Amino acid sequence: MTTVPAIEQPATERSAAVPTAAGRPRRRSHSRRAGTPYAFLAPAIVLFVAFLGAPIVYAAYLSLRKVKVSGLGLGSGSRTEIWAGLSNYARSLTDPEFLPSVGRIGAYGLIVVPVMLGLALLFALLLDAGRTKVGGFTRTAIFLPYAVPAVVASLLWGFLYLPRVSPINDVLEGIGVGSPNLLGSSWILYAVANIAVWGGTGFNMIVLYTALKAIPQDMYEAARLDGATEVQIAWRIKIPIIAPSMVMTFVFSLIATLQVFAEPMTLRPLSNTISSTWTPLMKVYRDAFTRDDIYSAAATSVIIALATFALSFGFLKLVGSRAFRQED
Amino acid sequence: MKKALVGVFAASLLLLASGCSGSDDSDTGSDAGGKVDLTYWTWTPNMDKVVETWNAANPNIHVTVNKQDGGDPAVTKLLTAIKAGSGAPDVMQAEYQKVPTLVSADALADIKDEAGSLKDKFPESNWNSVTLGGDSVYAVPQDNAPLMFFYRKDVFDKLKIAAPKTWDDYAAAAKKIHAANAKQYLGTFSATDAGLFTGLAQQAGASWWGINGDTWSVNINDAATQKVAGYWGGLVQEGSILNTPMYTPEWNAALNDGTQVGWVSAVWAPGVLEGNAASTKGKWAAAPMPQWDTAAPKTGNWGGSATAVTTQSKHPKQAAQFIQWLNTDPAAIKLLASTANVYPATIDSSAALTSPPAFFADQADFYTLASDAAKIGNPFTYGPNVNVAYSAFNDAFGKAAESKQSAQFTAALATMQTQTVDDMKNSGFKVAG
Amino acid sequence: MAVLVKKRSSTATILLLLGALYCLAPVLWVLVAASKSSTELFSTFTFAPSTHLFDNIADLSNYRDGLYWRWMANTALYAGVGALASTFVSAMAGFALAKFQFPGKSVVFNMVLAGVLVPGVILAIPQYLLLAKVGMTNSYWSVLLPSIISPYGIYLARIFAAAAIPNEVLEASRVDGAGDWRTFVTVVLPMMRSGLVTVFLFQFVAVWNNFMLPYIMLGNDKLFPITVGLSGLLNQGAQQPSMYTSVVTGALLSIVPLIALFLALQRYWQVDLASGAVKG
């Protein structure tokens, strides 16, 4: 690696044997100093250190601390902060509510990710096939929920779920299914998952649709001339080509799953079935705010962050994707 | 380590080439003229209008109201600000049950020099809540919220039921109403309202925390609370009352369409009913609480709050002066009662409460009932981690309510007790039992 | 390409319309619900519209001297200014990462990737504690500044820069004697334009969506964005009547500008998450 910044080749062109800048006599302009890339990066690095780096380090530090009360703990000076070693981590991992909450987001993820991405892929392929007049309208309509903040979306769905005011129940009753309590213990997971699916399908659909649009049409021509159906084309040509995009949508959906928070938090006051530790992040929130124990909250945060890293990178390694790597 | 980190953080902020002045509305300070600016966190509606009167009369102590979402979020924010070392207001509304938590976090300033003389203006129970039984004064009581019973008089009359005098009467009435109309219920057990359940336990004679020397005791799972939990669990199990939370759109709908025909609530209930079920105006009546023992009638509280000066205030004297005016001056009391719909804690509030609330216009004795109720409040000690106990209540009783099993209700108390004690021990409190 | 006559497929049409219905139904519901008076909200059929929309908007506008509109303006400020600044910072960083070789590059890039994975909820508390130490909480800055850094935005900008800017163009600009900064402003930014619109929209939605950060940072409700304000209206606490009509009306009004923005910028919207990075 040289210390003089050199213009990097985009990976997409590397295989093509086009003569490149490196082949020509290079004129060293005075403006091209070694500091240039750093100057471009400076604002990002400063902000990153201030608002991501420092808080993360601080959270790690807090996770090793705890408060010690003396006497009755009333009045000033009765609380001191002391080192806690790994006791916060031990408490967090042995909390009887922790494993169930992990299991819950596991089940939630198993519902949300396949359903959301399956629908997104289906809609993207239908739009791309171009065999309908309603493409423009439906594309916009399906994408629309992305514009609705999760807090507002949960509020809307919450109204729609409550048995007495729910049109969903009217419909179910109408077709003779009976009137289930959508916020009851047997439905609540699906009720929360539905909000995530509603909010996320459109976005993922656009991602996949964009990838489909980038495929040159002539790739289908031969298949069409051979009499392949649209379904066959989709399976054999389109899906394999956009597989990298699907991997990325999967990873980002996975991350979002691990971070599910706003939806259950907003629905919580409406139901008996969402506990304050329903998901791991809700436990963080409860410890930090309801229980005023930022130290345990920090420890749980660190555990969640590490789990997220392990899962995301583990998955990318598994599928051998180079998406998250540099091309050099 | 911490210093170094803050240093890095501050340095990187400085690098941001911007004139971030940290323009901060709550930054208190006094200018050359001796004028003092105070911020006041409260969730009471229209408090800004009450404060306007103070500001007009006291140009040198200007108070700005920052309306908060409610008791819990406000305390959460205050505690975070205290921990951070800045960001707290000067004056803070705090529910009585949160006072020990706030004192324990060193969030409230001792104002005994300014407010110590106000003792005689308040009921003893309220005064104890703000002094924690000691010599310090951490807040001045603002409102009192004794439990009362509210019911749809038209429905009761039609079924020829009288307002329940005992909890047995209440259970019988609940059964009768639900039997007469399968859609109607006398009440609901709400696992999201720990404050109400605490008040019911208080009425039955429980006192969940206690102090003995430098040792705390926790008695959430005592006989009185067991009795209350078992009673409500029984009603839910037999299906004569509901198990769904209050303060949901569904609950609103039930109040409006007349399927929720009773409400165990507190003196502030008329304001809530008026807002949530305006169409039922004139159909409600208020009554004293159903009793466990009619020979010794008691009640509990749901809500009620005091006004405190925070330890971060740079002008505690002026702040104390303001809260003394707010909670004891006759003009302020009148404003509190009429504009902010508060039931003042001070014992000379009768002048401000001449006519019943608009929603109960036909009930001339409303405030007589309220003041009778205020006099029979059972003593109750709150501990330094009410927040933990309440969040344990939400989770444990949520599960119990969902199961509709009476046994689960009483078992939930054991969970509350364990979680509350564990939390105190983990923080290093000495806890007996 | 020769015009290939495609058969219309009714299955495709029906499936897409069902999807659209599912996505529009709650929005339609909020539109209907916002037209009802507070009594009607819970008594009339869910999808039966009423006539009180403008009364409700007036009520909401009167709530504490038009506080709602202040929340809207704040949200526009946080999301608009925050996303613009974020896009610019991301573009610079993405350009540097895509087009230069320098020591420490892989460290920076890996940090960005790690940053993508960190949940905002976890960051909000330490961010608050640190900002409080420099006395900056409860101000516009406390929400704006943390919103500017977006690892995901940098990641996207890097992909777009790699894909959209041929090296020859940069060389040519340099041959003409333009400095790096001028090249960036006059050549790079315009070439990345449609990619940057995507980054902007992403960040705009992220800030608009963000609840936790402003919720923790702000004590003064005059500084609230719409999400925090609405949640406060919804959770009034036990002693206050609920304000469902205002909440529903507020929810409706709050999504209108976002929908308008999306429709306006739709043609720029291109999210090719993988193309720049995976090929090769």
From TrEMBL, chain A:
Please indicate if the UniProt record lists Phosphoprotein as a keyword.
no
Domain (ABC transmembrane type-1) spans 102-315
Q: List localization entries.
A: Cell membrane
| Example GO biological process | transmembrane transport
Q: What is its main location?
A: membrane
The entry's cellular-component GO terms read: plasma membrane
Chain segments carrying region Disordered: 1-31
| Bilayer-crossing regions | 38-61, 105-129, 141-162, 187-212, 241-262, 294-316
Please give the Gene3D superfamilies that the UniProt record associates with this protein.
MetI-like
Which SUPFAM superfamilies does this one have? MetI-like
Q: Its membrane topology, per UniProt?
A: Multi-pass membrane protein
Protein keywords: Cell membrane, Membrane, Transmembrane, Transmembrane helix, Transport
InterPro entries the UniProt entry points to: MetI-like, MetI-like_sf, UgpAE/MalFG_permease
PANTHER family to which the protein is assigned, alphabetical: BLL4140 PROTEIN, DIACETYLCHITOBIOSE UPTAKE SYSTEM PERMEASE PROTEIN DASB
Q: Which family does it belong to?
A: Belongs to the binding-protein-dependent transport system permease family.
Which protein is depicted? Answer: ABC transporter permease
Automatic annotation (TrEMBL), chain B:
Looking up SUPFAM superfamilies in the UniProt record yields: Periplasmic binding protein-like II
InterPro entries hit by this protein: Bact_solute-bd_prot1, SBP
Q: Where is the signal peptide?
A: 1-23
Q: Which PROSITE patterns match?
A: PROKAR_LIPOPROTEIN
* Keyword line: Cell membrane, Lipoprotein, Membrane, Palmitate, Signal
The domain of life is: Bacteria
A Pfam family? SBP_bac_1
Q: What is this protein called?
A: Sugar ABC transporter substrate-binding protein
From TrEMBL, chain C:
* Gene Ontology BP annotations: transmembrane transport
Q: Where in the cell is it found?
A: Cell membrane
- Key words of the record: Cell membrane, Membrane, Transmembrane, Transmembrane helix, Transport
Report the principal subcellular site: membrane
Got a GO cellular component term for this one? plasma membrane
| InterPro entries assigned | MetI-like, MetI-like_sf
| Ranges for domain ABC transmembrane type-1 | 72-265
Its transmembrane ranges are: 12-32, 76-98, 107-129, 141-163, 184-208, 243-265
Q: How does it sit in the membrane?
A: Multi-pass membrane protein
**PROSITE patterns, per database record:** ABC_TM1
The Swiss-Prot or TrEMBL record describes its family as follows:
Belongs to the binding-protein-dependent transport system permease family.
Could you tell me which PANTHER family the record lists for this protein? ABC TRANSPORTER PERMEASE PROTEIN MG189-RELATED, ABC TRANSPORTER PERMEASE PROTEIN MG189-RELATED-RELATED
Q: What is this protein called?
A: Sugar ABC transporter permease
